[in-house]
Design goal:
The complex is a heterodimer of chains A (about 325) and B (about 270). Chain A has about 325 residues and is an all-alpha fold. Chain A contains twelve helices and no strands. Chain A is globular. Helix content of chain B is about 75%, strand content about 0%. The longest helix of chain B has about 35 residues. The chains are: A mainly alpha (about 325), B mainly alpha (about 270). Chains A and B meet through α1, α5, α6, α9 and α10 of A and α3, α4, α7, α8 and α9 of B.
C-alpha cells in the first residue's frame, strides 16, 4: 500500500504539471491577445506595445512558458488584469462559498441516491421501484439551472421561505444568513446529481444481486440482509466510488452555473467574470486550482477503492 | 421493453425535429414583433403566453427547438469526426505517441464540457451558434476519441485482423472493412448520449450569456431572461425547460433503444 501511495502521488504530481501545460497551451492557442484586456477601444500602437510588455505576451512562447512555470513553482498565480489584486487570495475567498456548496451537495446527493438506488434495484418489480428509476431518468435529462430556477420560483418567490439569491456581505461571519443562502443551491445540485448517481447505485446493486457469491452466502445459511451487508456492499461500492469521484469533480465545476442562478460569489462566478472580461490570470488561476482539486478527488477515490477491494492491490503487487 | 424505449425516444425526438423544420417555413407569430400585451398567461391565441416585450413566447420556444437540434447535430458531427479519427490514429500510433495522446485526452476529459466550451467562447470574438458548436464539439471529441481508441485496440487484437493482414489487406482497408463496422454500434450510442449532453451544454452556455445572440435565442437564453419575471409569468420558465427535457429524454431513450437493438448481448444483460 505504501508503495502504491508513493507511485500514485508521483502520478498526481505529473498530471498536475501536465494539466498546467495543457492549460497554458490552450489559453495561448486561442486567438486574441491577453493584452487586449488592458486596453480601451482605439488604443494606438505604442499603448498596445506597452500593454504587451506588461503582460509578457511580446515574449517568445517558450519564455512565457518558463515564466508561467516559475510562477507556479512559487504558488504565484499572478495579478488580475482588471482589478490588479493577486489572484490566489481571491480564489481562497471564493472557495469559502464554493467548497461548502459542493461538499454539502455531494453529501446530500449520496444520502439520497444510495438508499433510493438500492431500493429501486431490490424492488425493481414493484411500482415504486419502477417509479424511482423513471424519476432518475427524468433527472438526468434536465439542466441543473432549470431545477434551480424552478426552486427559486416555488420556494423563494411563491412561498417566501428562503432567499431567492445572493450571499451575505459578511460571508460566514453571518452564519445563519450564509446557511440560508446555501440551502436552495445545495438542494438544486443534489437533486440533479442524485438522479445520475442513483442509476449507478442501481446497476451496481443489480450486478451484486445476480452474483454467485451472494447466492453462495445464502446457501451457507446467511440471511439475505446479512449476505447483502457482508458481501454485497463492499463489492458494489467499488464501481460506485469511482463514479462518486467523477461526480464530485463535476459538481465542483458545475457550480459555475448554479452560482450564476443564485448569484453566489463563488469560484464559478469568478471564472465567468474573468472570461467575460478576458482576464487571463484570473481564468488561468481558477482553472488551475479547480484542476488541482479535481485531480486530488481522483487520487482519493483511487486510494479508497484500493482500500476496499484487495483484488486491486494484488494486481499491482503482481506487476 | 426495448421496443418501447425506442418508440418513446423516436416520438419525442420526431416532434422536436418536426417543429424545428416547421420553423424554417412557418411561424405562428413574428418572433420579433409585439403580438399582444406583456407577460400574458397562456391562452388559445398564445399557447405559452407572451414575454415581457409582448412577443409570442410559444414561437420563441419553437425556434429554440431548431437551435438546440442545430447545435446538437453540429457538435455530434464535429465531435464524432474528430473523435473517431483521433481515436483510430491513436490506436495505430507508436507506443509513445499513443501514450501521450491518451494522457492528453484524460486531462481534457477531466475538464467538463462546459468549461472547455467557456474557454473556446471566451477566446473567440463574440458568441455565436458556430462557437457553441465548435466548443461543444471539441469537448465531445475528447470523450469519443478515448472510447474509439479502446474499441479499436480491442478489434485490432482479434485473430481475423491477423488473418486479413496475412491475406495482404492494407491498414487503410482494414480500418474501413473491419474496424469501423465493428466499433460503429457502440460509438453511435455514445454519440447519441453525447448529443443529449450537448443540448444541455448549449442551454447552459446561453443561460450564462455565452450562447448565440437573439433572434437565435436558445432555450437557455429564454430561461435566463424569464427568470426575472418568474413571479408574474412562471410559464416563461416552465415552457423552455419542459421542451428541453422532452428532447433530451427522447434522445436518451433513443440511445437506450439503439443499444439494445445494435448490441443484443449487452441489452439482454
Amino acid at each position: 500500500m505504501g508503495r502504491y501511495l508513493l507511485r500514485r502521488t508521483f502520478v498526481l504530481a505529473l498530471s498536475l504539471i501536465a494539466a498546467g501545460l495543457v492549460l497554458f497551451v490552450l489559453l495561448r492557442l486561442l486567438p486574441g491577445d491577453p493584452a487586449a484586456a488592458l486596453l480601451s477601444v482605439g488604443a494606438d500602437e505604442a499603448q498596445i506595445a506597452a500593454a504587451r510588455a506588461q503582460v509578457g505576451s511580446d515574449q517568445p512562447i517558450w519564455v512565457q512558458l518558463g515564466m508561467f512555470l516559475s510562477d507556479l513553482a512559487r504558488f504565484d498565480l499572478g495579478k488580475s488584469f482588471v482589478s490588479g489584486t493577486p489572484v490566489l487570495p481571491e480564489i481562497a475567498a471564493r472557495l469559502s462559498v464554493t467548497l461548502p456548496l459542493t461538499v454539502a451537495s455531494f453529501l446530500l446527493a449520496v444520502a439520497i441516491a444510495v438508499p433510493l438506488g438500492i431500493i429501486s434495484a431490490l424492488r425493481a418489480d414493484r411500482w415504486y421501484g419502477a417509479l424511482l428509476s423513471a424519476v432518475s431518468q427524468l433527472g438526468i435529462a434536465v439542466p441543473v439551472f432549470w431545477i434551480g430556477v424552478l426552486l427559486i420560483w416555488l420556494v423563494a418567490v411563491k412561498w417566501r421561505m428562503l432567499p431567492a439569491s445572493g450571499f451575505p456581505m459578511k460571508g460566514w461571519q453571518d452564519f445563519p444568513g450564509a446557511f440560508r443562502a446555501l440551502i436552495l443551491p445545495v438542494l438544486t445540485i443534489s437533486l440533479v446529481m442524485s438522479a445520475s448517481l442513483m442509476r449507478y447505485v442501481r446497476s451496481a446493486t443489480l450486478d451484486v444481486l445476480g452474483a454467485d457469491y451472494l447466492r453462495n452466502a445464502r446457501a451457507l445459511g446467511a440471511s439475505f440482509p446479512r449476505a447483502l451487508i457482508r458481501h454485497g456492499i463492499r463489492n458494489g461500492a467499488v464501481p460506485v466510488i469511482s463514479i462518486l469521484g467523477i461526480e464530485l469533480a463535476s459538481t465542483l465545476l458545475g457550480a459555475v452555473v448554479v452560482e450564476r442562478v443564485f448569484a453566489l460569489p463563488g469560484l464559478g462566478s469568478m471564472l465567468l467574470l474573468g472570461i467575460q472580461q478576458r482576464d487571463y490570470p484570473t481564468v488561468q488561476g481558477v482553472l488551475l486550482v479547480s484542476t488541482l482539486l479535481v485531480l486530488l478527488i481522483g487520487f482519493v477515490a483511487d486510494v479508497v477503492q484500493r482500500l476496499i477491494d484487495p483484488r486491486l492491490r494484488e494486481t499491482v503487487a503482481g506487476r | 421493453m426495448r421496443r418501447t424505449s425506442l418508440w418513446i425516444g423516436a416520438i419525442l425526438v420526431g416532434i422536436n425535429v418536426a417543429v424545428a423544420l416547421l420553423t424554417l417555413v412557418w411561424l405562428p407569430y413574428d418572433p420579433t414583433a409585439m403580438a399582444g400585451g406583456r407577460l400574458q398567461p397562456p391562452s388559445w391565441a398564445h399557447w405559452a403566453g407572451t414575454d415581457r416585450l409582448g412577443r409570442d413566447y410559444f414561437t420563441q420556444v419553437m425556434i429554440g427547438a431548431r437551435i438546440a437540434l442545430t447545435v446538437g447535430i453540429g457538435a455530434a458531427a464535429l465531435g464524432g469526426l474528430i473523435g473517431t479519427t483521433l481515436g483510430v490514429l491513436s490506436a495505430f500510433a507508436q507506443r509513445g505517441i499513443d501514450d501521450a495522446l491518451a494522457a492528453t485526452l484524460d486531462i481534457l476529459i477531466a475538464f467538463p464540457t462546459l468549461l472547455l466550451a467557456m474557454l473556446v467562447v471566451a477566446a473567440s470574438d463574440g458568441a455565436s451558434l458556430g462557437t457553441a458548436i465548435l466548443a461543444i464539439g471539441i469537448a465531445m471529441s475528447a470523450i469519443l476519441a478515448r472510447l474509439v481508441r479502446i474499441l479499436t485496440k480491442r478489434v485490432l487484437a482479434q485473430d481475423y485482423i491477423t488473418a486479413a493482414r496475412c491475406s495482404g489487406l492494407g491498414w487503410g482497408r482494414i480500418v474501413l472493412v473491419h474496424v469501423l463496422p465493428n466499433i460503429a454500434p457502440t460509438v453511435l450510442v455514445a454519440i447519441a448520449l453525447q448529443f443529449g449532453l450537448a443540448v444541455i451544454a448549449e442551454a447552459s452556455l446561453s443561460y450564462l450569456g455565452l450562447g448565440a445572440p437573439p433572434p437565435n435565442a436558445s432555450w437557455g437564453q429564454l430561461l435566463q431572461s424569464a427568470q426575472s419575471t418568474v413571479y408574474n409569468a412562471p410559464i416563461g420558465v416552465i415552457a423552455p425547460g419542459l421542451a428541453l427535457m422532452a428532447l433530451v429524454l427522447g434522445i436518451n431513450f433513443l440511445a437506450d433503444g439503439l443499444r439494445d437493438l445494435l448490441d443484443p448481448e449487452r441489452g439482454a444483460a
